[in-house]
Amino acid sequence: MTATKPQQHNKGPTREDSAGSRRQQAIEIAAMGTVYLNGEFVAAEAASISPMDRGFIFGDGIYEVVPVFGGRLFRPGQHLQRLRNSLGAIGLENPLTDSQWASVLQRLVDDAGTDDQYVYLQVTRGVAPRNHAFPDNARPTVFAYAQRMNYATATSAATGIAVITAEDIRWRRCDIKSTALLAAVMLRQQAAESGADEAILVRDGLVTEGAASNVFLVRDDTVVTPPKGPLILAGITRDLVLELAQQHDMPLIERAVKENELATAHEIWIASSTNEIKPVIRIDGATVGSGGPGPVFARMYQHYQDYKRAFCEGRVD
Ligand code: PLP
After folding, report:
1. What is the pLDDT of residue 13?
2. What are the C-alpha distances in Å from 210 to residues 140, 154, 293?
3. Phi, psi of 298 (to 5 degrees)
4. Beta strand pairing status for 198-203 and 286-287?
5. Alpha helices in 163-294 (DSSP H)
6. CA dist., res. 255 & res. 236, Å (int)
7. Ligand 1 centroid vs 236 CA: distance in angstroms?
8. Contact (CB, 8 A) for 254 and 215
9. Considering 29, 172, 185, 268, which has the largest number of Cβ atoms within 10 A of its Cβ?
10. Pairing of strands 222-225, 214-219
């Protein structure tokens, strides 16, 4: 009997593809250079933590992402304040003072050595035998790294992005920047599988935010965004958009936004530290407004870029 070759029905990744992408991921981790872990600066591929870390076991931790423009941390005070808020909300002591954080993060930025980057930092409740309730005397695990980033390419405002809407299946403390991101991961994957870049989330008929961004709508000339509260993350980029709107006399209202307002909005934007501000041009397959970045977006984007330039030139903090 001759052996027949198994038919390949599945066009999914082959074993070689998987090995290739694992190799590529290892190369990217090595290229991260030095990371900070528990008081030491070590090569990324040499950094290791216990599998009993509560961050790994429970997602019991807090994180921050701080943009870096012109080699300087952007709005570090606001990010460190939000870190304190999140740590406080989960009963975890901040392991470093603000000036210790600033010097750790700046050293990572200096080592990475490019103008544009972002810094990721994470604090978990540390290593302990598995038990849901807080352990006594666990030492927090502190991890941070800098990642080079080309904002000009990554945040191209010229083209716009596609989004889907999805039910907000997250918990009711989205104001805490928790490392437990499974719902956000699943929602972003749902968006990716629909050929979209982001999912705009709806809870009880109201728009909350994106899976990893805040949301703005424009009707006529007025910008509208859902208010802060436990159901959204208080985005640092969102705050800057509010400040810029005020500085430049652009009408902006914080109020509850009904899901059906998305269909009639003249413009929709998303905002986050690594996305900056991006116009949404398709939602659930339908065109938003004129089908391209709108005029109110163009103004806000210009103000945002001007502010960044002023920051890089040391004219604003
Ligand atoms: N909302 C969520 C759920 C996020 O994950 C993020 C950022 O990752 C934001 C909003 C935007 O926050 P920031 O502007 O501080 O990056």
Report:
1. 61
2. 29, 17, 18
3. -55, -40
4. unpaired
5. 182-193, 236-247, 261-264
6. 18
7. 7
8. no
9. 268
10. antiparallel
Residue 207, strand partner residues: 202
Taking the C-alpha atoms of residue 207 and residue 256, their distance in angstroms, rounded to an integer, is 7
Number of Cβ within 10 Å of residue 316's Cβ equals 11
Domains of the chain: 25-149 (3.30.470.10), 154-312 (3.20.10.10)
Q: Is 215 in the pocket of ligand 1 (CB under 6 A)?
A: no
- Name the amino acid, one letter, at 248: H
**Averaged pLDDT for residues 35-56:** 97
| CA of residue 17 to ligand 1 center, whole Å | 32
The atom number, within ligand 1, closest to the CA of 184 reads 3
pLDDT attached to residue 2: 37
Amino acid at 34: T
177 is an active site residue: yes
- Inform me whether the pLDDT recorded for 7 exceeds 50: no
CA 109 from centroid of its chain's CA atoms = 18
Are 221 and 208 a contacting pair, CB within 8 Å? no
- At residue 1, does pLDDT exceed 70? no
Residue whose CA is at the smallest distance from ligand 1 atom 1: 213
Q: Give the Å distance between the CA of 274 and the centre of ligand 1.
A: 9
Q: How far is CA 48 from CA 37, 234, 283, in A?
A: 8, 31, 41
| Ligand 1 atom 4, closest CA | 212
Neighbouring-strand partners of residue 210: 200, 213
With beta carbons less than 8 A apart as the criterion, state whether 225 and 217 touch. Answer: yes
Contact 241, 277 (CB under 8 A): yes
Q: Which structure tokens are listed for 133?
A: 């309730």
Q: How far apart are the first and last CA of the chain?
A: 77
